[in-house]
Amino acid sequence: MKNSRGEIYIPRTLEGKLRDLLAAPEIVAILGARQVGKTTLMHHVFQDLPDQKVFLDFEDPEVLSLFDEDVQAFARLYVDGKDYVFLDEFQYSRQGGKHLKFLYDRYPAKFVISGSSSLDVALKAAGALVGRIMLLELFPLSFAEFLSFRDPELVPLVRERLEELKPIPTPIHRRLLGHLEEFTLWGGYPRVATSGSPEEKAEVLKNLLTTYLMKDIRGFFRLATEYLLQKLMRALALQVGSLIQYAELAQLSGLPYRELKRHLAILEETYILKLSRPFFTNRRRELVKNPKVYFLDLGFRNHLARDFREWSSRSDVGPLAENFVASELAKAGYELRFWRTKSGAEVDFVLETRQGPVPLEVKSGMAAAPGRSLRSFLKKYRPKVGYVLHAGNVHSTVIEGAEVRFLPLYAMPLLNW
Protein backbone atom coordinates (compact mmCIF):
# COMPACT_ATOMS: atom_id res chain seq x y z
CA MET A 1 0.00 0.00 0.00
CA LYS A 2 1.34 3.44 -0.94
CA ASN A 3 0.37 6.73 0.63
CA SER A 4 -0.21 10.10 -1.04
CA ARG A 5 3.56 10.77 -1.08
CA GLY A 6 4.30 7.54 -2.94
CA GLU A 7 5.78 5.80 0.12
CA ILE A 8 4.98 2.20 0.98
CA TYR A 9 2.68 2.32 3.98
CA ILE A 10 2.62 -0.63 6.33
CA PRO A 11 -0.49 -0.48 8.58
CA ARG A 12 0.54 0.22 12.17
CA THR A 13 -1.30 -0.89 15.28
CA LEU A 14 -0.79 2.59 16.75
CA GLU A 15 -2.84 4.18 13.96
CA GLY A 16 -6.18 3.36 15.58
CA LYS A 17 -5.13 4.86 18.91
CA LEU A 18 -3.84 8.00 17.20
CA ARG A 19 -7.10 8.47 15.30
CA ASP A 20 -9.11 8.01 18.51
CA LEU A 21 -7.03 10.65 20.29
CA LEU A 22 -7.69 13.25 17.59
CA ALA A 23 -11.00 13.93 19.33
CA ALA A 24 -9.34 14.41 22.74
CA PRO A 25 -8.24 17.89 23.86
CA GLU A 26 -4.64 17.00 24.74
CA ILE A 27 -1.59 17.39 22.53
CA VAL A 28 -0.53 14.02 21.10
CA ALA A 29 3.21 13.30 21.01
CA ILE A 30 4.48 10.30 19.01
CA LEU A 31 7.86 9.18 20.32
CA GLY A 32 10.27 6.63 18.95
CA ALA A 33 13.66 6.01 17.41
CA ARG A 34 14.51 7.50 14.05
CA GLN A 35 13.19 5.75 10.96
CA VAL A 36 10.52 3.68 12.73
CA GLY A 37 7.82 5.32 10.60
CA LYS A 38 6.57 8.26 12.68
CA THR A 39 6.46 10.70 9.74
CA THR A 40 4.83 8.13 7.45
CA LEU A 41 2.17 7.36 10.06
CA MET A 42 1.47 11.05 10.64
CA HIS A 43 1.11 11.78 6.92
CA HIS A 44 -1.18 8.77 6.52
CA VAL A 45 -3.53 10.05 9.23
CA PHE A 46 -3.14 13.71 8.20
CA GLN A 47 -4.29 13.12 4.61
CA ASP A 48 -7.75 11.98 5.79
CA LEU A 49 -8.43 15.10 7.89
CA PRO A 50 -10.52 18.13 6.82
CA ASP A 51 -8.81 20.93 4.90
CA GLN A 52 -8.18 23.35 7.77
CA LYS A 53 -4.87 21.73 8.65
CA VAL A 54 -1.11 22.17 8.34
CA PHE A 55 1.83 19.73 8.40
CA LEU A 56 5.19 21.28 9.30
CA ASP A 57 8.64 19.70 9.51
CA PHE A 58 11.10 21.13 12.02
CA GLU A 59 13.96 19.86 9.87
CA ASP A 60 13.07 22.90 7.72
CA PRO A 61 15.36 25.57 9.24
CA GLU A 62 13.04 28.43 8.28
CA VAL A 63 10.03 26.90 10.04
CA LEU A 64 12.08 25.93 13.09
CA SER A 65 13.74 29.33 13.39
CA LEU A 66 10.41 31.15 13.31
CA PHE A 67 8.92 28.82 15.94
CA ASP A 68 11.87 29.29 18.30
CA GLU A 69 12.42 33.02 17.78
CA ASP A 70 8.89 34.40 17.42
CA VAL A 71 6.14 31.96 18.32
CA GLN A 72 3.45 34.63 17.94
CA ALA A 73 4.44 35.25 14.31
CA PHE A 74 4.60 31.47 13.82
CA ALA A 75 1.06 31.18 15.17
CA ARG A 76 -0.33 33.91 12.92
CA LEU A 77 1.29 32.38 9.86
CA TYR A 78 0.61 28.68 10.46
CA VAL A 79 -1.78 28.02 13.37
CA ASP A 80 -4.51 30.66 13.25
CA GLY A 81 -7.68 29.24 11.69
CA LYS A 82 -6.41 25.66 11.62
CA ASP A 83 -8.22 22.70 13.16
CA TYR A 84 -5.18 20.38 13.02
CA VAL A 85 -1.50 21.26 13.38
CA PHE A 86 1.04 18.47 12.84
CA LEU A 87 4.65 19.23 13.82
CA ASP A 88 7.24 16.65 12.78
CA GLU A 89 10.79 16.27 14.21
CA PHE A 90 9.80 18.48 17.13
CA GLN A 91 12.90 17.54 19.16
CA TYR A 92 14.94 20.07 17.18
CA SER A 93 13.20 22.99 18.89
CA ARG A 94 15.13 24.71 21.68
CA GLN A 95 11.91 26.28 23.00
CA GLY A 96 9.67 23.28 22.37
CA GLY A 97 7.78 22.82 25.64
CA LYS A 98 7.41 26.53 26.44
CA HIS A 99 6.22 27.56 22.98
CA LEU A 100 3.97 24.54 22.53
CA LYS A 101 2.23 25.46 25.79
CA PHE A 102 1.73 29.00 24.45
CA LEU A 103 0.05 27.66 21.30
CA TYR A 104 -2.06 25.12 23.17
CA ASP A 105 -3.37 27.68 25.66
CA ARG A 106 -4.34 30.23 22.99
CA TYR A 107 -5.52 28.26 19.95
CA PRO A 108 -8.25 25.60 19.67
CA ALA A 109 -6.32 23.53 17.12
CA LYS A 110 -5.50 19.86 17.72
CA PHE A 111 -1.71 19.54 17.98
CA VAL A 112 0.08 16.34 16.98
CA ILE A 113 3.86 16.32 17.30
CA SER A 114 6.50 13.70 16.73
CA GLY A 115 10.13 13.33 17.60
CA SER A 116 12.94 10.92 18.20
CA SER A 117 13.52 9.42 21.59
CA SER A 118 15.20 12.52 23.01
CA LEU A 119 11.89 14.38 22.67
CA ASP A 120 10.56 12.47 25.67
CA VAL A 121 13.34 13.92 27.81
CA ALA A 122 12.73 17.42 26.43
CA LEU A 123 9.00 17.25 27.13
CA LYS A 124 9.53 15.99 30.66
CA ALA A 125 11.78 18.96 31.28
CA ALA A 126 8.93 21.26 30.30
CA GLY A 127 6.80 20.84 33.40
CA ALA A 128 4.28 23.32 32.01
CA LEU A 129 2.94 20.61 29.68
CA VAL A 130 1.85 18.33 32.52
CA GLY A 131 -1.80 17.42 31.97
CA ARG A 132 -1.75 18.82 28.44
CA ILE A 133 -0.08 16.00 26.52
CA MET A 134 -0.61 12.32 25.67
CA LEU A 135 2.49 10.28 24.82
CA LEU A 136 2.41 7.45 22.28
CA GLU A 137 5.39 5.25 21.48
CA LEU A 138 6.07 3.90 17.99
CA PHE A 139 8.53 1.02 17.71
CA PRO A 140 10.00 -0.82 14.75
CA LEU A 141 7.45 -3.15 13.16
CA SER A 142 6.09 -5.92 15.34
CA PHE A 143 6.06 -9.34 13.73
CA ALA A 144 2.27 -9.05 13.31
CA GLU A 145 2.73 -5.74 11.43
CA PHE A 146 5.53 -7.25 9.35
CA LEU A 147 3.36 -10.25 8.50
CA SER A 148 0.40 -8.03 7.58
CA PHE A 149 2.67 -6.48 4.96
CA ARG A 150 4.58 -9.57 3.81
CA ASP A 151 1.85 -12.25 3.86
CA PRO A 152 -1.42 -10.61 4.95
CA GLU A 153 -3.82 -13.44 4.17
CA LEU A 154 -2.14 -15.60 6.82
CA VAL A 155 -2.86 -13.31 9.76
CA PRO A 156 -6.63 -13.88 10.29
CA LEU A 157 -6.32 -17.59 9.53
CA VAL A 158 -3.52 -18.15 12.04
CA ARG A 159 -5.15 -15.99 14.72
CA GLU A 160 -8.35 -18.03 14.46
CA ARG A 161 -6.43 -21.29 14.83
CA LEU A 162 -4.38 -20.04 17.76
CA GLU A 163 -7.38 -18.68 19.66
CA GLU A 164 -8.97 -22.14 19.38
CA LEU A 165 -5.65 -23.84 20.24
CA LYS A 166 -5.77 -25.81 17.00
CA PRO A 167 -2.54 -26.92 15.27
CA ILE A 168 -1.41 -24.85 12.29
CA PRO A 169 -1.42 -26.84 9.00
CA THR A 170 2.15 -27.97 8.27
CA PRO A 171 2.66 -26.01 4.99
CA ILE A 172 1.47 -22.79 6.67
CA HIS A 173 3.55 -23.52 9.78
CA ARG A 174 6.70 -23.86 7.66
CA ARG A 175 5.84 -20.71 5.73
CA LEU A 176 5.46 -18.76 8.97
CA LEU A 177 8.74 -20.10 10.34
CA GLY A 178 10.39 -18.79 7.17
CA HIS A 179 8.93 -15.33 7.76
CA LEU A 180 10.01 -15.53 11.40
CA GLU A 181 13.58 -16.37 10.42
CA GLU A 182 13.71 -13.39 8.04
CA PHE A 183 12.32 -11.11 10.74
CA THR A 184 14.84 -12.27 13.36
CA LEU A 185 17.71 -11.70 10.92
CA TRP A 186 16.75 -8.29 9.53
CA GLY A 187 14.37 -6.82 12.10
CA GLY A 188 11.42 -4.48 11.77
CA TYR A 189 12.61 -1.05 10.63
CA PRO A 190 10.14 -0.27 7.81
CA ARG A 191 12.87 0.84 5.39
CA VAL A 192 14.63 -2.49 5.94
CA ALA A 193 11.43 -4.56 5.62
CA THR A 194 10.60 -2.90 2.29
CA SER A 195 14.12 -3.27 0.86
CA GLY A 196 14.77 -5.93 -1.75
CA SER A 197 18.18 -7.53 -1.51
CA PRO A 198 20.15 -8.53 1.61
CA GLU A 199 22.84 -6.07 0.51
CA GLU A 200 20.33 -3.21 0.51
CA LYS A 201 18.96 -4.24 3.90
CA ALA A 202 22.47 -4.35 5.38
CA GLU A 203 23.28 -0.91 3.97
CA VAL A 204 20.08 0.58 5.43
CA LEU A 205 20.93 -0.83 8.87
CA LYS A 206 24.46 0.55 8.62
CA ASN A 207 23.09 4.00 7.81
CA LEU A 208 20.61 3.77 10.69
CA LEU A 209 23.51 3.42 13.08
CA THR A 210 25.95 5.91 11.61
CA THR A 211 23.61 8.60 10.27
CA TYR A 212 20.51 8.55 12.43
CA LEU A 213 20.78 6.81 15.78
CA MET A 214 24.31 7.88 16.68
CA LYS A 215 23.55 11.42 15.55
CA ASP A 216 20.52 11.59 17.80
CA ILE A 217 22.24 10.02 20.79
CA ARG A 218 25.45 11.99 20.56
CA GLY A 219 23.75 15.29 19.75
CA PHE A 220 21.14 15.28 22.47
CA PHE A 221 23.08 13.60 25.27
CA ARG A 222 26.28 15.52 24.47
CA LEU A 223 28.56 12.50 24.40
CA ALA A 224 32.18 13.33 23.72
CA THR A 225 32.69 10.31 21.48
CA GLU A 226 30.68 7.67 19.68
CA TYR A 227 33.52 5.15 19.82
CA LEU A 228 33.00 3.90 23.39
CA LEU A 229 29.23 3.77 22.95
CA GLN A 230 29.62 1.64 19.83
CA LYS A 231 32.04 -0.65 21.69
CA LEU A 232 29.46 -1.04 24.43
CA MET A 233 26.65 -1.81 21.97
CA ARG A 234 28.76 -4.41 20.17
CA ALA A 235 29.60 -6.07 23.47
CA LEU A 236 25.92 -6.14 24.41
CA ALA A 237 24.96 -7.54 21.00
CA LEU A 238 26.92 -10.69 21.86
CA GLN A 239 25.25 -11.02 25.27
CA VAL A 240 21.51 -10.88 24.51
CA GLY A 241 19.53 -12.87 27.02
CA SER A 242 22.41 -12.89 29.49
CA LEU A 243 22.72 -11.20 32.85
CA ILE A 244 24.61 -7.93 32.65
CA GLN A 245 27.99 -8.20 34.34
CA TYR A 246 28.97 -4.61 34.92
CA ALA A 247 32.67 -5.24 35.61
CA GLU A 248 33.05 -7.24 32.40
CA LEU A 249 31.15 -4.65 30.35
CA ALA A 250 33.25 -1.84 31.79
CA GLN A 251 36.39 -3.67 30.72
CA LEU A 252 35.08 -4.48 27.23
CA SER A 253 33.76 -0.98 26.55
CA GLY A 254 36.45 1.07 28.29
CA LEU A 255 33.77 2.95 30.26
CA PRO A 256 34.08 3.57 34.01
CA TYR A 257 31.27 2.06 36.10
CA ARG A 258 29.30 5.29 36.53
CA GLU A 259 29.58 6.16 32.83
CA LEU A 260 28.65 2.60 31.91
CA LYS A 261 25.39 2.89 33.87
CA ARG A 262 24.71 6.27 32.22
CA HIS A 263 25.31 4.87 28.73
CA LEU A 264 23.03 1.90 29.40
CA ALA A 265 20.30 4.30 30.49
CA ILE A 266 20.80 6.33 27.31
CA LEU A 267 20.48 3.19 25.18
CA GLU A 268 17.19 2.40 26.91
CA GLU A 269 15.88 5.96 26.54
CA THR A 270 16.70 5.94 22.82
CA TYR A 271 14.78 2.72 22.09
CA ILE A 272 17.82 0.57 21.34
CA LEU A 273 17.91 -1.68 24.39
CA LYS A 274 15.34 -3.12 26.74
CA LEU A 275 16.40 -4.47 30.12
CA SER A 276 14.58 -7.36 31.76
CA ARG A 277 14.56 -7.34 35.53
CA PRO A 278 13.98 -10.20 37.96
CA PHE A 279 10.48 -11.16 39.02
CA PHE A 280 10.06 -11.33 42.78
CA THR A 281 7.08 -11.05 45.05
CA ASN A 282 9.38 -8.97 47.27
CA ARG A 283 10.10 -5.82 45.19
CA ARG A 284 12.97 -4.73 47.41
CA ARG A 285 14.97 -7.77 46.41
CA GLU A 286 14.38 -7.02 42.73
CA LEU A 287 16.28 -3.72 42.95
CA VAL A 288 19.59 -5.34 43.85
CA LYS A 289 19.64 -8.00 41.12
CA ASN A 290 21.34 -7.63 37.74
CA PRO A 291 19.07 -7.28 34.68
CA LYS A 292 19.23 -9.17 31.39
CA VAL A 293 19.67 -7.29 28.14
CA TYR A 294 17.78 -7.42 24.82
CA PHE A 295 17.65 -5.29 21.68
CA LEU A 296 14.35 -3.80 20.54
CA ASP A 297 15.28 -4.58 16.94
CA LEU A 298 17.11 -7.74 15.94
CA GLY A 299 18.30 -6.37 12.60
CA PHE A 300 20.09 -3.62 14.49
CA ARG A 301 21.53 -6.21 16.88
CA ASN A 302 22.73 -8.45 14.06
CA HIS A 303 24.37 -5.48 12.35
CA LEU A 304 26.32 -4.77 15.54
CA ALA A 305 27.22 -8.48 15.83
CA ARG A 306 28.15 -8.51 12.12
CA ASP A 307 26.14 -11.68 11.56
CA PHE A 308 23.21 -12.08 9.15
CA ARG A 309 23.62 -15.80 8.55
CA GLU A 310 20.58 -18.08 8.36
CA TRP A 311 19.50 -20.06 11.42
CA SER A 312 21.04 -23.29 10.13
CA SER A 313 24.51 -21.71 10.03
CA ARG A 314 24.65 -19.99 13.41
CA SER A 315 25.07 -20.95 17.06
CA ASP A 316 22.99 -18.15 18.61
CA VAL A 317 19.51 -19.21 17.45
CA GLY A 318 18.45 -19.63 21.09
CA PRO A 319 19.35 -16.05 22.07
CA LEU A 320 17.77 -14.80 18.81
CA ALA A 321 14.48 -16.54 19.62
CA GLU A 322 14.54 -15.23 23.20
CA ASN A 323 15.33 -11.69 22.03
CA PHE A 324 12.49 -11.93 19.50
CA VAL A 325 10.00 -12.71 22.27
CA ALA A 326 11.46 -9.95 24.48
CA SER A 327 11.12 -7.31 21.77
CA GLU A 328 7.57 -8.35 20.92
CA LEU A 329 6.54 -8.18 24.57
CA ALA A 330 8.14 -4.73 24.89
CA LYS A 331 6.34 -3.47 21.78
CA ALA A 332 3.07 -4.75 23.26
CA GLY A 333 3.67 -2.66 26.38
CA TYR A 334 4.80 -5.33 28.84
CA GLU A 335 7.52 -4.77 31.39
CA LEU A 336 10.14 -7.46 30.90
CA ARG A 337 10.61 -9.77 33.87
CA PHE A 338 12.45 -13.07 34.29
CA TRP A 339 12.52 -15.56 37.17
CA ARG A 340 15.76 -16.95 38.55
CA THR A 341 16.52 -18.85 41.76
CA LYS A 342 19.75 -19.29 43.71
CA SER A 343 19.73 -22.95 42.68
CA GLY A 344 19.85 -21.97 38.99
CA ALA A 345 16.22 -22.48 37.93
CA GLU A 346 15.19 -19.83 35.38
CA VAL A 347 12.07 -18.93 33.41
CA ASP A 348 12.72 -16.62 30.47
CA PHE A 349 9.74 -14.28 30.94
CA VAL A 350 7.03 -13.69 33.51
CA LEU A 351 4.01 -11.61 32.53
CA GLU A 352 2.43 -9.80 35.45
CA THR A 353 -1.32 -9.89 34.81
CA ARG A 354 -4.44 -9.19 36.87
CA GLN A 355 -4.91 -12.94 37.16
CA GLY A 356 -1.40 -13.37 38.54
CA PRO A 357 2.01 -14.19 37.03
CA VAL A 358 2.11 -16.04 33.71
CA PRO A 359 5.40 -17.82 32.83
CA LEU A 360 6.82 -18.04 29.30
CA GLU A 361 9.58 -20.44 28.38
CA VAL A 362 11.31 -19.95 24.99
CA LYS A 363 12.86 -22.77 22.94
CA SER A 364 14.42 -22.32 19.50
CA GLY A 365 13.77 -25.98 18.66
CA MET A 366 10.73 -28.22 19.08
CA ALA A 367 9.72 -28.95 22.66
CA ALA A 368 7.64 -31.95 23.77
CA ALA A 369 7.64 -31.11 27.47
CA PRO A 370 8.45 -28.13 29.69
CA GLY A 371 11.81 -27.91 31.40
CA ARG A 372 12.48 -28.33 35.12
CA SER A 373 12.60 -24.57 35.67
CA LEU A 374 9.09 -24.02 34.37
CA ARG A 375 7.85 -26.92 36.49
CA SER A 376 9.46 -25.30 39.54
CA PHE A 377 7.71 -22.01 38.81
CA LEU A 378 4.36 -23.73 38.34
CA LYS A 379 4.77 -25.54 41.65
CA LYS A 380 5.73 -22.37 43.57
CA TYR A 381 3.32 -19.79 42.12
CA ARG A 382 0.40 -21.99 41.00
CA PRO A 383 -0.62 -20.00 37.89
CA LYS A 384 -3.61 -21.19 35.92
CA VAL A 385 -1.71 -21.19 32.63
CA GLY A 386 1.88 -21.22 31.36
CA TYR A 387 3.42 -21.14 27.89
CA VAL A 388 6.23 -22.80 26.00
CA LEU A 389 7.08 -20.95 22.78
CA HIS A 390 8.96 -23.21 20.38
CA ALA A 391 9.57 -24.11 16.75
CA GLY A 392 6.94 -26.83 16.89
CA ASN A 393 3.18 -26.74 16.57
CA VAL A 394 0.26 -26.22 18.95
CA HIS A 395 -0.44 -28.69 21.77
CA SER A 396 -1.10 -28.53 25.51
CA THR A 397 -0.80 -30.50 28.74
CA VAL A 398 -1.59 -30.06 32.44
CA ILE A 399 1.25 -29.81 34.99
CA GLU A 400 0.94 -28.88 38.67
CA GLY A 401 -2.67 -27.92 38.06
CA ALA A 402 -1.77 -25.43 35.28
CA GLU A 403 -2.56 -25.71 31.60
CA VAL A 404 0.76 -25.51 29.76
CA ARG A 405 0.23 -24.37 26.18
CA PHE A 406 2.88 -25.11 23.59
CA LEU A 407 2.69 -22.51 20.82
CA PRO A 408 4.87 -21.71 17.79
CA LEU A 409 7.31 -18.84 18.35
CA TYR A 410 5.50 -16.75 15.73
CA ALA A 411 2.22 -17.10 17.66
CA MET A 412 3.12 -14.76 20.51
CA PRO A 413 2.59 -11.41 18.71
CA LEU A 414 -0.61 -12.67 17.07
CA LEU A 415 -2.41 -13.30 20.37
CA ASN A 416 -3.96 -11.01 22.97
CA TRP A 417 -2.17 -12.04 26.15
Can you describe this structure?
This protein has 417 residues and is of the alpha/beta class. The protein folds into 2 domains: 124 residues, Rossmann fold (3-Layer(aba) Sandwich), CATH 3.40.50.300; 272 residues, no CATH class. It is built from 18 helices and 14 strands. It has a 5-stranded parallel beta sheet with strand order 2-3-4-1-5. Helix 12 crosses helix 13. It is globular.
List keywords for this structure.
417 residues, alpha/beta, 2 domains, 5-stranded mixed β-sheet, 18 helices, globular
Task: Provide a quick synopsis of the model.
With 417 residues, this protein is an alpha/beta fold.
Strand-pairing-aware structural class: alpha/beta
**What spatial order of strands do you see in the largest sheet?**
2-3-4-1-5
Please work out how many helical segments DSSP would assign. Answer: 18
User: What does the largest sheet look like?
Assistant: 5 strands, parallel
Rg, Å, rounded: 23 Å
Count of individual domains: 2
Shape: globular
Distance between the termini: 29 Å
Please provide the count of β strands: 14
How much helix is in the residues? 40-55%
The poorly predicted ranges are none
- Give the rounded overall mean pLDDT: 90
Strand content: 15-25%
List the helices and strands and how they pair.
Layout: H1 14-21, E1 27-31, H2 38-46, E2 53-57, H3 61-69, H4 71-79, E3 84-88, H5 96-106, E4 110-115, H6 118-125, E5 133-137, H7 143-150, H8 154-163, H9 170-186, H10 190-193, H11 198-221, H12 227-237, H13 246-253, H14 257-269, E6 273-278, H15 283-286, E7 292-295, H16 298-305, H17 317-331, E8 337-340, E9 346-347, E10 349-353, E11 356-362, H18 372-381, E12 385-390, E13 395-399, E14 402-408
Parallel strand pairs: 1-4, 1-5, 2-3, 3-4, 6-8, 11-12, 12-14
Antiparallel strand pairs: 6-7, 8-9, 10-11, 13-14
